[in-house]
Amino acid sequence: MNINSFQAGAAKVKTTPPLGTRINGDFITHYATYIHDDLYSKALVLKNGSTLIALVVVDICIMPRDFLDQVKADITRATGIPASNIMISSTHTHAAGSVADVHLGSADPAYSKKLPGLILQSVQRAMDHLKPAQIAFGSVAAPEHLLCRRYKMQETYLPFNPVTGGTDQIKTNPFGAESLIENSIAPTDPELGYLAVKGLDGEWISLLANYSLHYVGDWENGTISADYFGMFAARLAERLQVEDSFVGIMSNGTSGDVNIWDFQDSNRYPKENFEKSRLIGNSLADKIVDNLPNLIWQTDPELSIGYDEIEIDVVKPSASELSSAALLVAGARYEEIEPDQNGLRQIYAREQMLLNEFPAQCITPVQAIKIGEGAIGALAGEFFSETGLRLKAAKKSKYYFTITMANGNAGYVPPAAEIAKGGYETWRCRYSCLVPGAEEVIRKRLLVLLDQL
Predict the structure, then answer these.
(1) In percent, how much of the chain has pLDDT > 70?
(2) Which of 116, 36, 42, 25 is nearest to 77 (CA)?
(3) Confidence category of residue 1, pLDDT binned at 50, 70, 90
(4) 122: enclosing H helix or E strand
(5) Taking 90 as the threshold, does the pLDDT of residue 398 lie above it?
């Protein structure tokens, strides 16, 4: 194969919504009242011989599978890239336009109609920019910005479960109960992995990074911001001293149980709006730039894809639970609700009624992507660090990372042992409804696909 047969191209298209657009990611709907920084759909297209792969990361909270299936169909028609060779993921910023319902946060119809064309444009422009290229995978440790947000509490504290009305074994994000924390209960994934892409002429094309940290959220409701994902990209471009054509991308790893809200050291980070996300974004970018001299570049990497869709059973409420939920819903005033204990009971009662209308199975995409010596897994939901760590321990590629909230969204997919402990991520709702054991089935299927590559 000719050394110049491998090509790469990247592009970004602005996806910033207009003021007034609905924002989801909270228990209730917010509306865009202030734009702090622009949002983007960022696409990296790789080509070797007849194989084309598109990796797309969008500044948004979540995108459902049916939404993305249509976007992929549009991309295939316009570019010829097979849908199975397209990975589209959400960064999971909670300060973006909404295309999905989450709790009382609703999709914005106008933005849902507008966004697909912008994602398509980003891939088309990346195709237009294809040029002979080289790639390198890198990895650096960044444990200092990661905390498991699930805590074991002192015996005097009873973590409330709004679905059952009982108590959980652990508490997620124990606001107001910091003095009663015993310890966080799980390890985090400290790796900051990345794929670097340059032209054979030495000019930077793109860098796709992956880090297992939730959004930071150091802004007021109503803000539009790419969060630390955007801060990372801006700092990376500054440090590399590149042209605007360079596309810096941060993707979300297995961060379903991880954030940087430090309940035991409240003075750890600056408290001004955007300062924590800027500090973290800058720190991660600086680590990668300092690591770049260690890279070994490949000019003819093999490209291959494995893709599957798994049917996973959905857990639904019992008849008695539905009856109890109906009474709570009947007495609720959702237009005025507050997410206190009573409000959460009513919010999750509504979730039981709506979840009962769901299909009995959820179709969950699983994707494995081989790029030279490295590989990327893509999972459609919020997975815990344990999942990512197990995948990395079993990997056969020299470099590997997992991009989550990719190709759809099955919501939280905790390991079965974590479901038994309870906590916010496990409360049964439309966003957390797969049967215990689903994580293991999905993880093992991804490992099979990776092995086949």
Answers:
(1) 99
(2) 116
(3) very low
(4) helix 109-128
(5) no
Quote the pTM value: 0.97
Q: Which helix (H) or strand (E) holds 347?
A: helix 341-355
Q: Would you mind telling me the total number of residues written for the chain in this entry? A: 453
User: Is-contact 189 253, C-beta < 8 A?
Assistant: yes
442 neighbors 364 (Cβ within 8 angstroms): yes
443: which strand partners? none
Q: Provide the 8-state DSSP code for 219.
A: S
pLDDT band at residue 4 using 50, 70 and 90 as cut-offs: low
Nearest to 203 by CA among 416, 402, 373, 9: 9
Whole-angstrom Cα distance, residue 60 to residue 226? 8
Two tokens, residue 49: 């011989």
Do residues 377 and 403 lie in contact, with contact meaning Cβ atoms separated by under 8 Å? Answer: yes
Q: How far apart are CA 187 and CA 425, in angstroms?
A: 16
Cα(139)–Cα(294) distance, integer angstroms: 10
Higher pLDDT, 25 or 100: 100
Q: Do 261 and 380 lie in a common domain?
A: yes
Same domain for 301 and 325, yes or no, is: no
Alpha helices in 224-340 (DSSP H): 227-240, 275-291, 319-330
pLDDT for residue 266: 85
Are 142 and 211 spatial neighbours (Cβ–Cβ below 8 Å)? Answer: yes
Q: How many CB atoms lie within 10 A of CB 2?
A: 8
* Residue 384 counted as domain residue: yes
From the CB of residue 316, how many other CB atoms can be counted at a distance below 10 Å? 15
| CA angle, residues 84, 251, 81, in degrees to nearest 5 | 25
Q: Which of 367, 419, 304, 408 is nearest to 89 (CA)?
A: 408
pLDDT confidence of 2, banded at 50, 70, 90? very low
**Is 212 in the same domain as 349?**
no
Q: Domain of residue 372: give its range.
A: 3-146+185-309+360-452
- Which residue type is seen at 30? H
Instruction: Answer yes or no: is 170 within a domain.
Output: no
Q: Are strands 204-211 and 191-199 parallel, antiparallel or unpaired?
A: antiparallel
Structure tokens at 208: 């796709």
Q: Residue 283 — pLDDT band, cuts 50, 70, 90? A: very high
Q: What average pLDDT does this structure show over 324-334?
A: 96
Over range 317-341, report the average pLDDT: 95
Sign of CA dihedral 274, 280, 284, 287: positive
Residues 197 and 333 in one domain: no
